[in-house]
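Structure ticket #2291
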Amino acid sequence: MTTTVDHARRVGGVQAWIDSFRPLRQRNFLLVWCAGLISLAGDWMLRVALPILVLERTGSVTATSGVVIAGVLPTLLFGSLAGVFVDRWDRRKVMLVTSLAQALVVLPLVAVSGADTIWVVYAVAFTAASLSQFFSPAEAALLPLLVRDAQLVAANALNAVNNNLARLVGPALGGLLAAWAGLAAVAYVDAVTFVVAAGLLALVRGRFVAASAEQAPEPDVQQSDVQQSDVQRSGIGPSGLGRATAAVRTEFVAGLAFVRRSRVLLVIISVFTATSIGEGIMGVLFPAYVKEGLRGGVTEVGWLMSAQAVGGVIGGLVAGWFGSRFSKVRILCVGSVIFGVIDIVLFTYPLVWPVFWPAVLLMVLVGIPGVVISAAAMAEIQAAASDVFRGRVFAVAGTSMGFAAMLGAGLAGTFGDQLGPMVMLVVQGAGFVVAGAAMGILLGGRAGGRRTPNQEPTAAEQRTPAEERTPAEERTPGEERTPGEERTPAADGAPFPATVSGG
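Resolution: structure written out below.
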């Protein structure tokens, strides 16, 4: 009997892992997934080539840091407001138009010839990052409209596989291409990847406009709840520009209020914002850790980043299996603790054994829970946010985490020399342990619910988010939607960053 039960569990586990790839059977999701992989590879090529070019042309580290600043500023300036427009417009069209615009934006890089034209690099980096503020929340808001609730973790995990595959391939290709043919060649290739991605997005069928606030089934807060009082407080007159500005402000405030009144969203976004301080510390002090703790240099940093990407690919391949067997909150809590413990081991073992290869192994290991908790957080937020607010929710989350990462970078620069990189990086790892415990306490009622391998999803899980239908209208998992099919937004349900770096 025991043997039979064990065999059934093994078979069920294998089937659950196979089912984690089921989103790729959905035509629309497959097109978006392929578009993401292609454009991300081009992004990583350019991300490596731009700093190299600036350093070679100017010989200045300060000038090189300007590329990073130009890429970060749009998140802080426009990130939250971009979510307002993402919730107004068709998400697929936002991604398509943004991709075409980014293809045009990178082309001026071919004119960069010396230090006197470096300003073009800054302008391109700033403009491209500004466009990304629309693309990222649109993609996050679109995904729940392409797959069912029960497939959200798996779908987000497959997106994480995209990012990590691009991290493995893109930097190497970008560095080689820049060295062989110069920045112009990298810019042309990146532009082509955006055009190809736009072509794939054009093939996606359907309209993906958020339902109006009036259709939303009792979300935590409606835009109408804040509209009148907010416009009154704004002091803006009845001119066309004034009304438009007031409307944007009203919708922005409504998104903030929606997050504030949803326990799930508030806890997850707050916790991941706090851990983003550690990510900022990580970005500044990780090279110093490699130098002081592992006696390594640029080559070793590259190896470790690639090792983490390998772990991210593995994590993306298994995250769907975890999502089919455990609740998203349990994955977040346990996964964050595991992530933090691996980080602590990674940053302390050189004190007693300063050997390089264990760091490579630990970076692979930490990449696995990093992607798993990222996929679970994304899925939990997508399920919890009503479709009418989903773009703003992700935009607010991204902006909050951007500010926190900058704060962490500042703290690292201020205290890194006094405390040393290992101490601060251990604090960063401990932050994830605390984060996992905090989510377990604050969302404890949602952390249960392990699935058995052969357990069927509930009726709510079989639906795509916000979709209402009778039993007679049930679709098969791979069935396509008709191009104009409407759906209503989901009510408040059960980070979520696209990737969780660090470690």
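Closing remark: Residues 5-9, 213-237, 451-503 have pLDDT under 50 and may be disordered.
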